[in-house]
């Protein structure tokens, strides 16, 4: 099988490894962690945390050709993905077998679709997106690169989510809504109006509370 590594050693990275093991398309060799050097050389899910970014050349020499970025922070995920692509690695996607995905959905590289997620017809899912546990994306939605739809969040039809935008836990987005780039929608919010770029919005109905 093709060899893959995960950049990040967080809880989200653990979810990715579980999905990849269920898919059985890749051999997961281990993790990189730039955050906590004390974890270097330790094990997670039976796999080594090799070190930080200084280990990229070593991984390539080991025959690793693919990466998935296992960090939750949207902008960081995009930055790290650009770095591995520049070094010649390919981005892979991880889709849990229990996810329900319409046959015409476009899912770009680096994206993770977790257990119980539903993505309905006509959707376009960008690179390095997280469609998290038990979330739902209804028909003809567009999710920008690096966006994150958190567990239990629900998007109605024809919603546009911008680049590196985070839709919080259990949030609900009404149909035909556009959420700008780099915006954060708070947990449990109900979004019934468009939201601009680079703001934090929350509540029912969601209102812009501050700029980012």
Tell me the major beta sheet: 8 strands, mixed
Protein structure class: alpha/beta
The averaged pLDDT comes out at: 97
Q: For this structure, what is the CATH homologous superfamily of the largest domain?
A: Hexapeptide repeat proteins
**What is the CATH fold-level name of the largest domain?**
UDP N-Acetylglucosamine Acyltransferase, domain 1
What is the molecular shape? Answer: globular
Which stretches are low in confidence, meaning pLDDT under 50 for 5 or more residues running?
A: none
Helix proportion of residues, in percent?
10-25%
Sheet with the most strands: spatial strand order: 7-10-13-16-19-22-24-25
Structural description of this entry:
The chain has two domains: 2-92, Rossmann fold, CATH 3.40.50.20; 95-211, 3 Solenoid (UDP N-Acetylglucosamine Acyltransferase, domain 1). A hairpin with a 2-residue loop joins strand 24 and strand 25 (206-211). It has an eight-stranded mixed beta sheet. A six-stranded mixed beta sheet has the order 3-4-2-1-5-6. The N and C termini lie far apart (43 Å). The protein contains three helices and 25 strands. The radius of gyration is 17 Å and the shape is globular. 15% of the residues lie in helices and 34% in strands. By secondary structure, the chain is α/β, with parallel strands linked by helices. The mean pLDDT is 97. It has helices at 11-23, 56-61, 74-86, and strands at 2-7, 26-32, 43-44, 47-51, 64-69, 90-91, 94-95, 100-101, 106-107, 112-113, 118-119, 124-125, 130-131, 136-137, 142-143, 148-149, 154-155, 160-161, 166-167, 172-173, 178-179, 184-185, 190-191, 199-203, 206-211.
């Amino acid at each position: 099988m093709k060899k893959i590594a995960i950049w990040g050693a967080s809880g989200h990275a653990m979810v990715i490894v579980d999905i990849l093991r269920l898919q059985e398309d890749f051999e997961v060799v281990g993790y990189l962690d730039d955050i906590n050097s004390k974890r270097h050389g330790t094990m997670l899910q039976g796999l080594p945390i090799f070190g930080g970014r200084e280990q990229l050349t070593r991984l390539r020499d080991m025959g690793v050709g693919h990466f998935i970025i296992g960090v939750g922070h949207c902008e960081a995920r995009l930055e790290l993905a650009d770095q591995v692509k520049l070094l010649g690695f390919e981005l892979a996607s991880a889709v849990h077998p229990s996810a329900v995905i319409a046959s015409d959905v476009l899912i770009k590289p680096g994206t993770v679709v977790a257990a119980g997620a539903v993505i309905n017809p006509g959707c376009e899912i960008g690179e390095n997106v997280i469609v998290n546990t038990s979330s739902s994306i209804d028909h003809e939605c567009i999710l920008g690169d690096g966006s994150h739809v958190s567990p239990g969040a629900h998007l109605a039809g024809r919603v546009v989510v911008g680049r590196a935008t985070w839709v919080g836990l259990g949030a609900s987005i009404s149909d035909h809504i556009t959420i700008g780039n780099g915006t954060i929608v708070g947990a449990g919010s109900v979004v019934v109006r468009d939201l601009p770029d680079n703001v934090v919005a929350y509540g029912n109905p969601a209102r812009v509370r501050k700029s980012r």
